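Lab meeting, item 3. Inverse folding demo.
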């Protein structure tokens, strides 16, 4: 792999990680607005979640009656 290809790979990974962090922050904000202050275990779960999980939880926010329903399996 050339140095230029390696830089391209790093840039792509950095962008994906930044996007995931941004989505996690939006999820936290929406959850806080809807359900109030978030417990530390919820914040930890969001921080360690995959992008797929975060997107799934965002989709559930409007229909969930409580915080637990957002994170159901």
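The presenter then showed the designed sequence:
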């Amino acid at each position: 792999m050339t140095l230029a290809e390696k830089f391209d790979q790093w840039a792509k990974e950095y962008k994906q990680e930044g996007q995931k962090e941004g989505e996690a922050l939006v999820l936290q904000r929406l959850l806080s607005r809807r359900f109030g202050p978030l417990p530390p275990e919820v914040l930890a779960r969001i921080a360690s979640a995959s992008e797929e999980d975060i997107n799934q939880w965002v989709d559930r926010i409007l229909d969930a009656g409580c915080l637990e329903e957002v994170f159901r399996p």
